[in-house]
Design a protein that fits this description.
The protein is α/β, with parallel strands linked by helices. It has one domain: Rossmann fold (3-Layer(aba) Sandwich), CATH 3.40.50.1580. A 5-stranded mixed barrel has the order 5-8-7-6-9. The mean pLDDT is 94.
Length: 270
Amino acid sequence: MEKIIEETVTYLKDKGFENPEIGIILGTGLGQLIEEINIFNEASYNHIPNFPTATVEFHKGKLIYGELEGKTIVVMQGRFHLYEGYTLQDVTFPVRIMEKLGIQTLLVSNAAGAINLDFKKGELMLIEDHINLQGSSPLAFKGVEFLGERFTDMSAPYDAEINKQFKAIAKRKNIRLHEGVYASVVGPQLETRAEYRMLKIMGADAVGMSTVPEIIVANHLKLKAAAVSVLTDECDPDNLEPVDIQDIIANAGKAEPNMITLFKELIRTL
């Protein structure tokens, strides 16, 4: 894998992706942040050597390099998921590339369903811990020890200082920001009523199909990491309505301005 990483990094450096400080992964329906960035360079995933290609129609598939709030950043506009048929190593490959380009902080966004019924759709949840229900680990491959500590500590996967800053910004800007546990499942089907009940018993506040693999690899690479979920639907097993993916994307879009405010204000202080 080291050789593959080197080839990809060389290609991006030749395209002007030089020493970004912060990496950002944008989740489902959360692409508007791009409009706030002073873009220097961009590369389509299908042009980047060894990169997977986004196959979900609402995931754009571009790596963007530019400036936001005075910081150089690299942004994944569109991410990869297990449910697209990728491996966990594919899903997390871009995190390894961003780290080799120079990032020290990784910020992740996603769309998630609210298991905690005190949380409502259109609100945000700061992830303070997670439950990996994807059936494997992005670190479970031969040679992982050459890229970082195999037995990566996960006692505090989300950076406490960044989370503290997020909460302070939310308070200052009057944004409702919950804090909770995110459960990551494979998907792509949504959950049954019994599965929502199980997730609640396990201690999950929200459920989605991403983020956890990238956070595990960020910790493997000793990056500071933080993640925010946009809550797009309410998962009440006793009153479960059929969910339309277009509704989920619309709800993500409604909550996105608050997400952008949080990210911009945080980046300014990093």
